[in-house]
Amino acid sequence: MTAATTAEHAAAEPRVVGRRQRTGAERGKSVLWHLCLLASLVVVLYPAFWVLTASIKPNADIITDLSPIPTTVTWENFASAFDGLAGVPLWRFFWNSFVIAALSVVGIVVSCSITAYALGRLEFPGRKAMFAVVIATLLLPGQVMLIPQYLIFSELDVVNTIFPLVIGKFLALDAFFVFMYIQFLRGIPRELDQAATIDGAGHFRIFFSIMLPLLRPAIVTSSIFTFIGSWNDFMGPLIYLHEIEKFPLPRLLQSYNNTEAVSNYGGMMAMTLLSLVPVVLFFLVFQKFLIKGIATSGVKG
Amino acid sequence: MTIPSTAAPPAAHEAGALAAQAKQRKRGGRRRPAISRRGELLTGYTFMTPWIIGSLVFTLGPMLWSLYLSFTDYHLILGGDFIGLDNYTAMFADPMFSRAVKVTLLYVVLAVPLKLLASLAVAMLLTQKRRGIGFYRAAFYMPSLIAMSVGMALVWKALFAADGPQDQFMSLFGWEGGGFIGNPDVSILMLVLLSVWTFGAPMVIFMAGLLQVPGELYEAAEVDGAGKWHRFVHITIPMLSPVIFFNVLMETVHAFQMFGPAFIIGGTAGGPAWSTLFYTVRIYALAFVDLRMGYASAWAWMLVLAVGVVTLIMFRAAKNLVYYAGEDNK
């Protein structure tokens, strides 16, 4: 446990331990190291920087004018971005995205935490088989369920609502997060449950009063990942949402690209930038949680 | 706070050896008083109820249903009949099938190794003890969160447009192929690069793995006169192999399912000239544009088979190639 603890801390924030005396060669190496990383950083962050400047360039300049500082600055793009598409204002698409993302977060936290508690902490017949199914679904291509799911949802008459997009989240079907919660649960000493059992607490009590508070890091991490995943999700809304008033942002951008982009490329770039802002903000605020979350369970954003 | 005693490598462990895992569990599991058993049964199934319902209705049920559909010529509006294996034989005669397979395999073969090499290289740079690690790690990780969005796909289209940044930059070196997006010979590279751009996610997992390699191993090897390269090949790679396996497995499985950016960049036809016709894009087009859901189901099952076979081969290979430290002394 101690070894793992130090490793975990190191993973979270490698620190300069016991700084050695700096010789000339050492310093040279350090400079080289920073130069290497800064050079790759410029390449890696270029696309993000590009969209930033594209959103304030006039239409004609966006693709061809490579100067990092726009020759002409215009706020026109943002004005037209706020107008949205086909008379539906931009905030509406933000709201649609937000509702789907918020419901997804609630669903994931509730369903995955109880599923993980049962799989990771309780002993009952069939548990191992269920655990194996969860792990197997991590690798299963979801496309194979797509068509029957669509047929089920159209039978239920819920196509063109957000129901199909969020119901799976409430049923713990996201194996990644179930697995992540199990990983976190393993770090909670069993002695806690045993002590509580001796004190007469039932499993519900143990789950709500002991596990949930201790699972807070997992809850935060899974919430952020779910939010971002839902915010970016394109395939679900593409299949299930067909009315423009119901579109989340990815569908808006896709439609805009098909219709308005020819005449208003800048507007689309401004929209794109605005659609990325919440994700980047989330990341900046919670990056330590996120990175630790991936490191501990191998969950991808 | 609570520290999961199992960090990245055991995650790989997990995916790697279910059987070994079960063994471990038996050994690790503590015997508890019989009184709580009945309670556990009841609570266990109560807590599992959402998942059980969900799996039956939205995972297992649909899998069987789509298997059945794959033996029919079901059309969303026209309906359909049982036609045996006709869909599967038709698939192999379908030029779109060979195109989609070619594009997808090319993507997997290019994107997965490039992305993992980049992520391992940067992870190794970032596990040295220097200042600014946190900043670099965050900056390199950031693209992973936005790369697969529609917005970023639109940006990518612009970056690789004719006379766009890539075209202008490469023209400096005598490139005459224009923007990648209009050139079927290289358009797939746009998507490969988009995938490589997200190297930050596996990088973080590699970093966690690298930090768990005991420093004494390197010190001992150094004393024995092993050079940098030797230490990398004989210590880093074996010690990191569970993490490498985990990353290769997950990245490959995900690469086979590339959809969103490919859809935005190439459309349902996978333009230009089918050069970005990804397998899942074709499934979408067959099922939801042409409404040929029986045939599309056969395509989907083919994907499951392909991913299954690839996964199996990887697990087999992992048995010999992956080294689990401490496996035998636990």
TrEMBL record, chain A:
Compartments where found: Cell membrane
Top-rank taxon, per record: Bacteria
Keyword field: Cell membrane, Membrane, Sugar transport, Transmembrane, Transmembrane helix, Transport
Region of interest: Disordered: 1-21
Domain ABC transmembrane type-1: 94-286
TM stretches of this protein: 31-52, 93-119, 131-150, 162-185, 206-228, 265-286
Broad class of where this protein is predominantly found: membrane
Membrane topology: Multi-pass membrane protein
CDD domains linked: TM_PBP2
Family of this protein: Belongs to the binding-protein-dependent transport system permease family.
Protein name: Multiple sugar transport system permease protein
UniProtKB/TrEMBL annotation, chain B:
Coiled-coil portions: none
Residue intervals passing through the bilayer: 41-65, 105-126, 138-160, 188-211, 232-250, 262-281, 293-315
Main localization (coarse): membrane
Pfam families assigned to the protein according to its UniProt record, in alphabetical order: BPD_transp_1
Membrane-protein topology: Multi-pass membrane protein
Domain ABC transmembrane type-1 as annotated: residue spans: 101-314
Signal peptide start-end: none
One GO biological process term: transmembrane transport
UniProt entry tagged with the keyword Transmembrane: yes
Keywords from the UniProt entry: Cell membrane, Membrane, Sugar transport, Transmembrane, Transmembrane helix, Transport
Cellular compartment(s): Cell membrane
Any one GO CC term of the record: plasma membrane
Family statement drawn from the similarity comment of this UniProt entry: Belongs to the binding-protein-dependent transport system permease family.
Record's protein name: Multiple sugar transport system permease protein
